[in-house]
Amino acid sequence: xxxxxxxxxxxxxxxxxxxxxxxxxxxxxxxxxxxxxxxxxxxxxxxxxxxxxxxxxxxxxxxxxxxxxxxxxxxxxxxxxxxxxxxxxxxxxxxxxxxxxxxxxxxxxxxxxxxxxxxxxxxxxxxxxxxxxxxxxxxxxxxxxxxxxxxxxxxxxxxxxxxxxxxxxxxxxxxxxxxxxxxxxxxxxxxxxxxxxxxxxxxxxxxxxxxxxxxxxxxxxxxxxxxxxxxxxxxxxxxxxxxxxxxxxxxxxxxxxxxxxxxxxxxxxxxxxxxxxxxxxxxxxxxxxxxxxxxxxxxxxxx
Length: 303
Hints:
single chain, mainly beta, Neuraminidase, four-stranded antiparallel sheet, TAT_signal, UCP031900, Phytase-like_dom, signal, Esterase-like activity of phytase family protein
């Protein structure tokens, strides 16, 4: 069976199983249809290429920014066919992110960049774990503009800090840590606005699933990409969407739950409108390992 057809059938099965699980649990079945669009395996020759944990897509789907977990930012253009399927990725530039003094960040404790969000004004926001913090960049080559440190949260530690980052239309940021401090403890949702942090709400945790990426869609929903590492069986991924309120999430749906090894280690999520529906674009972190790959996976959501 051709690889593309196999992936499409696997994706359809995953969506069907997710709907069945929600229905069996007593909740409403999703009101949306999720269509598999395509997968693009991306190769790069630079030593800094890989480890991508964050992604932003331009409103028309033709441009991208991706963030590696070693403090490198890449940007460029996307070639698509008439059906909107990715056929090529062209890198226009890359930058080694810097600290507040203008010194390039080293991989590890200070340079573990995880979350990426770009505002309507072009300002680039990056969340780091290791030394948990948020930094802003008016230009990729500029020194970081330091921001107030986020509050200490249960479960936050080295390699388990602010993992998912999204930006609202008003410029406020939403951030989630990778862990909550216990399998039965919900994930706290932080809001950063006008230089201040506050706890907005919390999101239910399903024991093995951990947040790795997030975005606020043009439909007003908050989209959360989660990952389950299953050892030798590889990674499974899922996407939830919900409306965030101070009284808790509303209208929550599990849109996608992949099978182990169906995709690589999906960590970054961008949500945009492609003219036919809401497009979900996800990018994988290959951990700079030869056995893994950098791939972009896309779905279209039709309500």
